[in-house]
């Protein structure tokens, strides 16, 4: 791909489009995701991101004011849809076990489907700063919604354990199980194909659920299909 000899004002792209995504913003996010996850956040400059896209650094700033803004947008991609889906599923009537399975299934799929292992960014020390408080709050909100459904499952399967003094944090295990996908990807370097088949079932069984796996999955898939204001599954 040859460089444009004299792009001139108003022509920020230096090379032919090289990134997936229909917009410059999507290309920037893809390049940043690759660099942040492979080279590290601190070791990646906005100039390097712009070079990876094939645009001028000044053009990058038309879409994102700072590198932190790019990271924030990437983090938001991992949390927005599961958070919306969790709220929808909780509002649905019926058995909580398929709801928890459906949420874990969707969340596992999207963590696997992302081209880059964006969940690994959760461990960045920069996320502890005030700049990323909003993301931390939203992630904690998702964790709590998982816990809401988990407590409902426990109430159905182990009524005697349905007290804050006896749960001992077990209601948070499904959320933690889903996030093991992040470490699976880090260890293997590829998306674990088996995760969507294993983790959602493990999420309900760890709470004491003992029903039929096939029926549970079918019910959960149907829940995802008819979710209120449907959240589109990842490609």
From TrEMBL:
Q: Which UniProt keywords apply?
A: DNA-binding, Transcription, Transcription regulation
PANTHER family attached here? HTH-TYPE TRANSCRIPTIONAL REGULATOR BETI, HTH-TYPE TRANSCRIPTIONAL REGULATOR RUTR
Protein name as annotated: TetR/AcrR family transcriptional regulator
The GO terms this record gives for MF are:
DNA-binding transcription factor activity; transcription cis-regulatory region binding
Extract the InterPro entries matched here. Answer: Homeodomain-like_sf (IPR009057), HTH-type_TetR-like_transc_reg (IPR050109), HTH_TetR (IPR001647)
Q: Does DNA-binding show up as a keyword for this record?
A: yes
User: Which residue ranges hold the DNA-binding region?
Assistant: 45-64
- Chain residue ranges for the region called Disordered: 1-22
The organism encoding this protein is Antrihabitans stalagmiti
- Residues in domain HTH tetR-type? 22-82
Cite the Pfam families for this sequence. Answer: TetR_N
Q: Please give the superkingdom of this protein's source.
A: Bacteria
């Amino acid at each position: 791909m040859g460089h444009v000899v004299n792009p001139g004002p108003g022509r920020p792209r230096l090379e032919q489009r090289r990134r997936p995504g229909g917009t410059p913003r999507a290309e920037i996010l893809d390049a940043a995701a690759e660099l942040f996850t492979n080279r590290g956040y601190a070791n990646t400059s906005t100039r390097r991101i712009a070079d990876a896209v094939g645009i001028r650094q000044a053009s990058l700033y038309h879409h994102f004011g700072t590198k932190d803004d790019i990271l924030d947008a990437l983090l938001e991609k991992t949390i927005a849809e599961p958070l919306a889906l969790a709220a929808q599923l909780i509002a649905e009537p019926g058995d909580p076990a398929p709801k928890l399975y459906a949420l874990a299934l969707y969340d596992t799929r999207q963590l696997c489907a992302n081209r880059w292992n964006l969940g690994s960014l959760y461990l960045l020390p920069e996320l502890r700063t005030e700049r990323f408080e909003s993301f931390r709050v939203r992630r904690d909100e998702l964790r709590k919604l998982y816990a809401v459904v988990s407590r409902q499952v426990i109430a159905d399967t182990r009524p005697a354990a349905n007290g804050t003094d006896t749960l001992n944090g077990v209601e948070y295990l499904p959320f933690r199980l889903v996030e093991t996908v992040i470490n699976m990807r880090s260890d293997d370097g590829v998306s674990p194909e088996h995760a969507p088949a294993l983790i959602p079932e493990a999420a309900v069984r760890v709470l004491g659920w003992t029903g039929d796996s096939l029926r549970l999955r079918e019910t959960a898939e149907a829940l995802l299909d008819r979710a209120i204001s449907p959240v589109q599954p990842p490609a």
